Amino acid sequence: MERNIPRLLLIHLIFVVLSTRPCAATPGLSVLKVVPISNPYSWAVAQNYCRWHHSDLITIRTQQQADELAPYEGWIGLYSDTSSPEWKWSRGDERATFFNWDSNEPDPSHHCVLMHNSAPKWKSEDCSSSQPFLCDEGLILVQENKTWEEALVHCTQLEAAGSTTRPYQLAILSEPNDNLMDTEKIRLNATTYEVWVGLRFLAGDWLWMSPNTPASSDLPQCLAEQQHCGSLVPRNTEWKIMSCSEKRNFLSSRRPTK
């Protein structure tokens, strides 16, 4: 029973936050965090998977982003309707303005796009073909200064953009130096040196704001008074333990499915 106390406290904290009266929340700045999925699916199934478990298939808007994704391969969010030659991104049906086509591409008979890691160029492909794929976690940087708990409430009030209504929460990150996350964009746009994430010390344990996500074992267990909340330092890509009453920008992500 004692081992379950931290998770029971976490569930109670989440319940209190979800019971807070909703109000309009300021949206934030989208930050790319790529989640490679190795299981091969058709483009439509891959799109549904990303929307259900993460945010959507990835959108690539610049050559720098395309170059950073060079080690990975699979479906991306670019597609065209059979009735129109216009290329769009899955997320919000945004019209594409950047392309990284391989030679002799695109094939007018193919309407979905994948990238190869051997030559990080884009290739059009039959949408029914089974391929690995790249999801976007859908991180949001909120450039408002709030305490950790105020940030937690704010995240639940963000409007879920796109085709899914899955709500937001303070971001859950596996590691601070995740090379699939655009930490440079966070560093350049955050107005505070640290940004809150969904990491909290409760009843002697560090926990993420998802009961099934284990926290890093490297986090300190002997803490100064009130130093019970976790933040990310984008400049050094490291965790920083702080007083929960400090006011900082924060990262938000969609709540995982059960």
Automatic annotation (TrEMBL):
Q: Name one Pfam family in it.
A: Lectin_C
> What InterPro entries does this protein's entry cite?
C-type_lectin-like, C-type_lectin-like/link_sf, C-type_lectin_CS, CTDL_fold
* Name recorded for this polypeptide: C-type lectin domain-containing protein
SUPFAM superfamilies in the record, alphabetically? C-type lectin-like
Location of the C-type lectin domain: 42-136, 141-253
Which N-terminal stretch is annotated as signal sequence? 1-25
Please provide the record's keywords in A-Z order: Disulfide bond, Signal
Q: Which PROSITE patterns match?
A: C_TYPE_LECTIN_1, C_TYPE_LECTIN_2
Annotated source species: Perca flavescens (American yellow perch)
